[in-house]
Amino acid sequence: MPPEPxxxxxxxxxxxxxxxLTERRKAxxxxxxxxTAAALxxxxxxxxxxxxxxxxxGVALRTFYRYFRTKEDAVAPLLAVGVRQWIDDLxxxxxxxxAPPVREVLERAARRALTPADExxxxxxxxxxxxxxxxxxDPALRAVWHRVHHDSExxxxxxxxxxxxxxxxxxxxxxxxxxxxxxxxxxxWAAGDEPAEGPQGPxxxxxxxxxxxxAGLPELDGANGxxxxxxxxx
Length: 234
Description:
Residues 49-68 bind DNA. The chain is mainly α.
């Protein structure tokens, strides 16, 4: 009798390689410059110059332009921090029997991303509020905000495709709705004076917005299955 064919062991999802020390230092420098830029923009608006941001950050102007094309681009790393946390959280959700519906996973991750876990996170939200308040008078700064959210939507789409197993149209609609809920929640909170936590904080606002904007997407009601496909509730 011929030998029975061996069954290949199930493949494990590959882990993303950890950034090198050089890459981590670069990211830390960029974020530090972003914090400084955000504080200066909130204080002085469009009158801030790249040279002032560089000097206040303790780097040479040449170094500044090695990291950022324009003075407005310098705030992008700060604005992207919460977005990155949200998508990283979604990329590794609980799966298998008893896994919650994708809609619930999405809302929980959004709440966590907009609930400051420590003082640096709270400070990042306050700096974002200051930036959003000066954006109406600075179209270039507003363009950076929208670009960060466009990139967020692009990154969210394949994550939701894996979680739901839905078609392209439904996945894109879900990504657009979820991303819009995040953006509008932060903008609405930033326009007022409410604290970051509480019924009018960004975490509560994003939960309300997420429910309203995704109400017509039944693809989010299934649980994430063990193979990354949606399991319909029975």
